[in-house]
Specification:
With 213 residues, this protein is of the alpha+beta class. Helices cover 42% and strands 21% of the residues. The strands form two sheets. A six-stranded antiparallel sheet has the order 5-4-3-8-7-6. The longest helix is centred in the middle third of the chain and has 20 residues. It starts with 6 loop residues before the first helix and ends with a helix.
């Protein structure tokens, strides 16, 4: 901590991060131990966060992330979309395929930004707001592969006909962006993904990640 930072705010944010990392919530004692502060401080932090609906406590006294976090989260998508658009435009024009940024939304993959190429005679129509399960399509599979941290993986994922017959896709995960889990990819009408597309998608994912840091 420095003179310009707030210790109380720092502790409150640490509480939210700890609760976000658990599916079962944490007790006051558990939070006290993890934060290295006494229980009275934790009670005050939780009471303040509850007032803003950022934390809720169940009947057993375990604290969990509150629904107020969702309202804040909805404002993240436009910011992420804006930061990603330059790299997506470049990717779409270079490959001649529809480029997209996809984020995790619960158990689904949610397209939050889509850019279609301007010079092609035809391309796949893909709209922001389109969602599908994480285990189908290149966008979702790239995210799941990143979670597994497979050492010998090329860094991008290719799929064929999983979401639409006759369409194939390539996607690479966003890496090193705190609080954001997603992927950048393209979808095209082809029998197979051309060899250069995977590495190009990987570069675009890195560009988007850099823009979000």
């Amino acid at each position: 901590m420095t003179a310009e930072t707030s210790q109380t705010l720092d502790r409150g944010l640490r509480v939210l991060k700890l609760l976000a990392d658990t599916d079962h919530g944490l007790t006051v004692t558990e939070l006290s131990n993890k934060l290295g502060v006494n229980r009275t401080v934790v009670y005050r932090l939780l009471a303040t966060l509850e007032q803003h609906a950022l934390v809720r406590r169940d009947l057993g006294g375990r604290a969990r992330v509150g629904l107020g976090v969702l309202r804040l989260g909805r404002q993240v998508h436009p910011l992420v979309r804006e930061a990603a658009l330059p790299a997506l435009r470049s990717l779409a024009e270079d490959i001649g395929a529809t480029a997209h940024l996809t984020l995790v939304d619960g158990s689904d993959a949610l397209a939050v930004a889509v850019v279609e190429p301007t010079w092609t005679d035809y391309h796949v129509a893909y709209r922001a707001g389109f969602r599908h399960s994480l285990d189908r399509g290149a966008a979702g599979r790239a995210i799941l592969t990143a979670r597994q941290k497979t050492a010998d993986h090329p860094g991008y994922t290719l799929t064929q006909g999983e979401l639409e017959a006759g369409a194939c896709g390539a996607a690479a995960p966003l890496l090193g962006v705190s609080g954001v889990e997603g992927s950048v990819g393209v979808v095209m009408l082809a029998d197979a993904v051309p060899e250069r597309v995977g590495p190009r998608v990987l570069d675009a994912a890195r560009e988007v990640a850099d823009a979000l840091r």
